[in-house]
Amino acid sequence: MLQFSFLLLICLCVQSAIASPVLTGCMDPTVVNAAEVALDQINTARKEGYIFFLNRVYDVQQETKEESKTLLHLTIDVLETKCHVISRRNWKSCEIRDVGDGPVFGTCDVTVSIQTNIIVQNFTCTIQQVPGHAINHVCPDCPISLSLDDSNVAKAVHLTLKKFNTQKHSANYFALLNITRASMQWVIGPAYFVEFIIQETDCAKTLCDTELSKCKPSSETSPKGSCTGSHVDGGHYQTSLNVKCSIYESAHPSDNQISSPNTETPSGLVHVLPPPALPMPSRASPTATNCPGVRNHNLHLETMDI
């Protein structure tokens, strides 16, 4: 009987060890994979903003639960990409915003469960745009961010959307949903760069003198678009106007759509804070050994450690 109990104890210990392997830090393949899958699910759950890119795992804590279930509490550093969340693209296929694009950085605290699948239980992300003087320090001629309420921004959006609607992309007009980003740079005159979201309306282009403000989306699943536009006021020279929109069908997702075995939408929040004051306060050190991990990108901002 004693021998049987001893063997049972050994089996239980072995089973526990298999179910909850000892992690070796932020570069551990299990941790990195969990962070990558978690970010897929976070981006899928979000309805606004731009897709996050995993820059590194900053910290990790492991918690063993019943039935071979493990919880990982992850702190991951993220960078904003140029892909809007309506595109549903996988973050690995998206380009991050570099110094000249008004980069946005942040941190996500994520709890994931690992059993058969990796599932995000909850998440909280905080993001901030890099302050203009930090960018100006390394790139004096880069565009500067503008308020989305700026009248020149509204004009640039109006003109570029009007140009898009004159092109043969759709039988119906598209209307503005919201402006997402804006910046300005001096070229031969002031150049305004805008990004905005549009949606197809029920107003056919065959109608004359259509007031877009009166046009409504034909349905909740009407195609939406993510647009970039520019308006350069050349003064005595010719004014330049450019627009490019990517349209996404709600019923027919992109081939690059994020796939996840988790059918439940994780609960979480994304807090958008103003650009930080410099110098930034020191960050709390990771609690886990061999953390933080190695960054995937370095923006080379001399005054900021991100």
Number of separate helices:
4
Main beta-sheet annotation: 5 strands, mixed
Residues in helices, as a percent range: 10-25%
Strands side by side in the biggest sheet: 1-2-3-4-10
What string gives the helices and strands in order? HHEEEEHEHEEEEE
Q: CATH top level of the domain at 140-248?
A: Alpha Beta
Structural class: alpha+beta
- Averaged pLDDT: 87
**SS strand fraction:** 35-45%
Tell the overall outline.
Answer: flat
Architecture of the domain at 140-248, CATH level 2? Answer: Roll
As residue ranges, the low-confidence spans are 1-19, 251-262
Q: What distance lies between the first and last C-alpha atoms, to the nearest angstrom?
A: 60 Å
What would the CATH topology of the domain at 140-248 be? Nuclear Transport Factor 2, Chain: A
Total number of beta strands = 10
Q: What is the CA-atom radius of gyration, in angstroms?
A: 24 Å
What would the keywords be for this entry?
306 residues, alpha+beta, Nuclear Transport Factor 2, Chain: A, five-stranded mixed β-sheet, five-stranded antiparallel β-sheet, 4 helices, 10 strands, 36% strand, disordered N terminus, Cystatin_sf, Cystatin fetuin-B-type domain-containing protein
